[in-house]
Structures are given as C-alpha cells and as structure tokens.
Design brief:
30% of the residues lie in helices and 15% in strands. The protein has one domain: Rossmann fold (3-Layer(aba) Sandwich), CATH 3.40.50. The chain has 241 residues and is an alpha/beta fold. It has a six-stranded parallel sheet with strand order 2-1-3-4-7-8, with helices on both faces. It is globular. It contains nine helices and eight strands. The chain has helices at 21-26, 52-65, 79-90, 111-114, 142-148, 158-161, 199-208, 225-228, 230-240, and strands at 3-7, 30-32, 71-76, 94-100, 131-132, 155-156, 176-182, 215-219.
Amino acid sequence: MTAFVLVHGAWGGAHGFRKIRPLLWAAGHEVFTPSLTGIGERAHLTSPQVCLTTHITDVVNTVLYEDLRDIVLLGYSYGGMVVTGAIGHIGERISHLVYLDAFLPSDGDSLSTMTGGRAAPAVIELGRDWLVPPVSREYDDPAETQWAAPRRTPHPAACFTEPVWLARPLEQFPFTRTYIKATGEPRPGPGDLRPEAGQPFWAAADRVRHSPAWRYREIATSHMIASNRPGELARLLLELA
C-alpha cells in the first residue's frame, strides 16, 4: 500500500482530485488531498498573510500529523512550488516526487519570477491588490466547466511572490522524480510568460525529458488533467506505486 499526497493548484482545491481519489482507493492505496489555506473549500480563511510558506505548512503538517512515510507526493500546477518547498521539511518521507504539468522551481525562484512578474503585483498592500482573480479554464466536458467555474476562488498574491528554497538541486535528493506534461496545451510563442499560456510547464518538460534523473510522461489533454483524463493519470500514478 502506498500513501499518495496530491497537492492542488492555484485558485483550486482538493475537489479537483475527486475523480482520482476513488481510482487509487480501489487499487488499495491511501490518498490524501490537503486543501490549501485561503482557496477552495478553505477560501473563508484567506488574508494578505497567506503565502507560499502557509501552503507548504499545510502539506507538511498533513504528512507529519498522519505520520506518512514512503509517500508519493504530487504537485499540480502551482502545487509544484508547494511540494518543492516541502522537501526541506519532509524530504526523508518522500519515495517519489511527481510534478503534474507543474512549476518546477530552482532555489530562489518564485512563481512571479518564473512568469515574468505577471502572476502577482510587485507590491502587496493591505486592502489592495492582494488577491489574484482566477484564470479561466476550459474542460473537455462543458458540464465540468460549469461545475468547476464557481469553485475557482481568488488566490492570495503573496503565494506567488514568495521564493522557494532548496538546500540542493532536486536531482541530488534520494527520492525518484517524474514530470507529467499535458501535451494538449499548445507551446506558447517566445517571450509569452503569461501563467495561462503554460510556458513554465513547457520549460520544465524541456528541462527533464532527456535527464537520467527523471522519468518523463505525457498525457494528451489540456492543463486540467485530473478532470479530463482521470483514468490515464491514475494508471501512471499506479505505476509509481
């Protein structure tokens, strides 16, 4: 039995994994999908003080309080920033790290710097410009788009401007690593660093696809992989277990 810890993306929530959880449970595994403070079902806790460290702590505490070990830790989209930051606290508990069409930061990177400063205001003032409205997303199933849209909540901007810290490069940690790219998203043009354009995800795929330190997989769908292709994603995750 493997314990999967799945970390959702910006403007989302644990509900984004609702189609994946039963597939992994049915295969006999544990699944934890922590909701990050201030967004999704925990939107009522939002404030200008919610930052990347807050979300890292959400995930770290889930692992520590549940006393999980040998976990498969997955970060989706913005969740890639979160799981990277969590390594310094629970790295010895991770057996495999998965980036699902996710930001793949190096030491000192923030989501804002990786998107050319377009993800959040440079200065965050109390009562002004501290919430970033959700980027609209389309799903393969129009009914899913209708269901998900009202559940996409504004995101505290400090999460996007705070850098992540790594004691050493990801490839030097003892756990194994996989990057899963959504190839249904077109590669943006040069210089297009808009978060919704997905350039950082393509850059991450280019970084790892030929590296012996990584496994690289693709799913032919849009960025909303967990909703569009739950069965295919579950099969890839079960390979890791």
